[in-house]
Automatic annotation (TrEMBL):
InterPro entries named among the record's database cross-references: MFS (IPR011701), MFS_dom (IPR020846), MFS_trans_sf (IPR036259)
Membrane topology: Multi-pass membrane protein
Residue span, Major facilitator superfamily (MFS) profile domain: 28-426
Sorted UniProt keywords: Membrane, Transmembrane, Transmembrane helix
Taxonomic placement: Bacteria, Bacillati, Actinomycetota, Actinomycetes, Micrococcales
Protein name: MFS transporter
């Protein structure tokens, strides 16, 4: 999709004189993103699977439809939310009002999912969760585009990447003893999310935005801002495509993890929760190696692409091992390798995104929203495609998880290779 823009820009329209942020900003940003991911990725890791199994036993494909619907809603609304955030003028600034509102919607969503009497209501709850917590997360990330200088992007991306990957693990561990209580299963991670985001909102200063130039926009203007000319910002476009492929593979890998472990090891979902929780400690270490190592080293050597490619290669290798695994040892080994790759790719790619993000001074929210398409489209489409893949070459009630994980491996590898086309960043 293109507009009438014609001039190719190799370098993003970046603010070059941003001062370094202090430790307060960095650590409360890390904690806030940790809280968001604990609040609404923990349900994706285990809670939604348990509720789907309660409401529709033997129909795990329903999980794909629910998660896909949530991602589709976010895909359609996130650029609008970003454009709205860019143009918000309040004493609290542009980003904090959306964090507060998103938290409120997010908490309501957790209660809805916990008490849902039907699959439809459960799906509605997940849509609200994606919208509410997704709005909080996107405005935290837009804040990094507003304030981080290039020299700190890898470090902060590494720290937040580590936090967001380990948060669901801690969420599973926290809820391991309450899998029989749906309300606690959803609300315990949610309370952690509310506390940590509130700390950021109240303790990290954001300038009053009422004095900024007011840029009014019509509905037609909003819709046009959903589009941009990829030729105008080619490096941003290549980063978008690499991220799209990566998250398509990652979504295929993670959406059915609980059911995959259950089928491959011939155990119940409740027992799977125990295995995932036990794997959590080692997973934390693996993600730490990838996210922190890649983030800090990419700043140190001023190189991003080689680390993003390495993340894709490592993650693909782990998925391949999981696809071919026949016992719990191989599954755990593959999962840990995948964790290293996820940490490395996602952290450094986030820093790379900030390097190539266009029009940061005026339209950071818009382009972060467009970047969100690279995540939300895979999250909406992959779960809808996965059930069909699971039925290829099998009969009866069996599912072809091996093929699903092989396809996922190919996609994340392709995501790493595409990044090499970026020119303005090494």
């Amino acid at each position: 999709m293109t507009t009438n823009e014609t001039t190719t820009v190799d370098e993003p329209d970046a603010v070059t004189d941003l001062p370094k942020v202090n430790a307060r900003y960095i650590w409360f940003m890390v904690l806030a993103q940790f809280g968001v991911f604990m609040a609404f990725i923990t349900p994706l890791a285990i809670s939604l699977s348990i509720r789907v199994n309660e409401l529709a036993p033997g129909h795990e494909e329903t999980l794909g439809y629910i998660t896909g619907a949530g991602a589709l809603f976010v895909m359609l609304t996130s650029p609008f939310m970003g454009i709205w955030s860019d143009r918000t003028r309040t004493a609290l600034g542009r980003r904090r009002p959306f964090m507060i509102g998103g938290m409120a919607v997010g908490v309501v969503s957790l209660v809805v999912m916990a008490l849902a009497p039907t699959l439809f209501v459960l799906g509605l709850g997940w849509v609200l969760a994606q919208w509410g917590w997704g709005t909080v997360l996107s405005n935290l990330q837009i804040s990094t585009a507003d304030r981080l200088p290039e020299a700190q992007r890898g470090k902060v991306a590494g720290l937040t990447g580590f936090a967001t990957q380990v948060a669901p693990v801690f969420g599973v561990i926290l809820t391991f003893g309450v899998t029989g209580n749906a309300l606690l299963l959803f609300l315990i991670p949610g309370i952690v999310g509310v506390v940590l985001v509130t700390l950021f909102v109240t303790l990290v200063h954001e300038d009053d935005s009422r004095g900024m130039v007011k840029d009014t926009i019509t509905l037609g203007g909003v819709l046009r801002k959903y589009l941009y000319n990829p030729k105008l910002y080619p490096d941003f476009s290549w980063n978008w495509l690499g991220r799209f492929l990566f998250y398509f593979g990652l979504t295929l890998n993670t959406t059915f993890t609980a059911f995959f472990f259950s089928a491959r090891l011939d155990i119940s979902l409740a027992e799977v929760a125990g295995i995932i929780a036990a794997l959590g400690g080692a997973g934390v270490l693996a993600v730490t190696v990838g996210a922190l190592g890649g983030g800090f080293l990419s700043d140190r050597f001023r190189r991003r692409k080689v680390f993003v490619l390495a993340g894709g290669v490592i993650m693909a290798a782990g998925m391949l091992l999981m696809a071919l695994s026949a016992d719990v040892t191989a599954l755990i080994a593959g999962s840990l390798i995948v964790s290293v790759g996820i940490g490395l790719f996602s952290a450094v790619d986030q820093a790379l995104l900030l390097d190539v993000l266009p029009e940061k001074a005026t339209d950071a929210g818009r382009f972060m929203g467009i970047t969100g398409f690279a995540t939300s489209i895979p999250q909406s489409v992959a779960p809808l495609v996965a059930p069909a893949v699971l039925l290829i070459g099998v009969t009866g009630g069996e599912k072809n998880y091996s093929l699903l994980y092989l396809i996922a491996a190919a996609l994340v590898l392709a995501g790493g290779l595409v990044i090499l086309r970026i020119r303005s960043v090494r």
